[in-house]
Specification:
Helix content: over 70%
Number of helices: 8
Number of strands: 0
Largest sheet: none
Structural class: mainly alpha
Amino acid sequence: MITIFFIGFLFSFLGYTPPGVLNMTALKISLRGNKKDFKQFTLGVSLVVFIQAFLSIYLTEYIFKNPMFLELLEKVGIIVLFFLSIFFYGQNKKEKKQVEIDNKKKHSFFSGIILSALNMFSIPFFCGIVAFLMAFNLIKFDTTSTFIFVLGSVIGAYLILFLYGKYAANIQKKNRKFNK
């Protein structure tokens, strides 16, 4: 059980480490100096990571039990990617407009939920980790194993966001030196 927790923690920590929308938003909120907003944002992200990790476990279990579903998913994925590439190619040619953001109302918890939910790679990422665990017979699809894996994943994601917030000033200084 410790192995499942550690693997969930480690992969989640490493998966959320590269700079991305969630990390940079946490960094920006931390630099504003509002600790309450930062905590709310990270809790919102953690809530969605919890849901995404649970969904990925059950999706992986369903795919392994129904290999025909995987074939259907691959075919649908190819079609969706084709149409998305056409759509974004067309969008790239259009005039780029700047959108003004209303900063009067800040709901960091809901921002964390929305941005984390828009992170489309989390579920396939966690599915890959679960498939890795299944290949080495390290996980069973029982409630205890599932909860321990999800708990490790949530703590790993929360910790990396916490570290981004804690060392925000240092990251900003290094970024300025790098830009020069």
